[in-house]
Each structure stands twice: as C-alpha cells, then as structure tokens.
Amino acid sequence: MDESKQKQIDNEKENQVREILNDEKVDKFRKLAKNRMPRVLKLMKLVENLANPYHYRYEKKQSQQIINDLRSALKDIEESFDKGHEKIRLNDKKSNNENDHYEYEI
Rounded to an integer, what distance in angstroms lies between the CA atom of residue 81 and that of residue 75? Predict the structure, then answer.
C-alpha cells in the first residue's frame, strides 16, 4: 500500500474516533443539562417566592442584592458558554468537523 493511501486511511480512522468522542460529549452535556436545569429553575422559583409580601418582609436593598447576585451569576454563565463556543469553533476548524448538537430538552 502506498503512503498516501495509508495516510487517507489513518485520517478516516482519526475522524471516526473524533466523531465517537464528540457524540459522547454531546450525550454527556444533554444528560447533565436535563438533570441540572430543572433543579436550578426550581430553586430560582423558590427565590422568587421570597418576594411575597404576605409571607416575608424585606428592604429594597435586600431584594436588589438578590437580583444583583443573580445577574452576576448569569453573566458568569454566559461568559463561560461564550468561551466554550469559541473553543468548540476553533476545534471544529482544526478537525473540519462542524458539530452543533449542544441543545438540551427539558
């Protein structure tokens, strides 16, 4: 077998391995997102319940602190995903493999 044919076979094998690893990462992301997102949303609803004036008393300053903390945490999450998307885009360019399967369903 000539060298170029062997190189082509090696590249195909490498691409197959990358595809399997990507599929595993996609499945892991979906599984964790399906597990974590409902818990986060439930906890956020519980925080929202603190706004009920029939059950709780609070100062404007206290409620603003909660809102600011939530905004800050959301900003951190957005920045992390943006960095992750950039790394994925760069890796896809290197491997010539477009993979946009990072959605999750609740």
Answer: 10
Tens of pLDDT, residues 79-105: 999 999 888 888 777 665 444 455 666
pTM here? Answer: 0.67
Q: DSSP for the chain? A: --HHHHHHHHHHHHHHHHHHHHHHHHHHHHHHHHHHHHHHHHHHHHHHHTT-TTT----HHHHHHHHHHHHHHHHHHHHHHHHHHHHHHHHHHHHT----------
Q: What's the distance, Cα to Cα, between the start and end of the chain in Å? A: 51
Identify whether the C-beta of residue 31 lies closer than 8 Å to the C-beta of residue 105.
no
Contacts of 15 (CB under 8 A, 6+ apart): 95, 97
- What are the φ and ψ backbone dihedral angles of 56, each rounded to 5 degrees? -140, 155
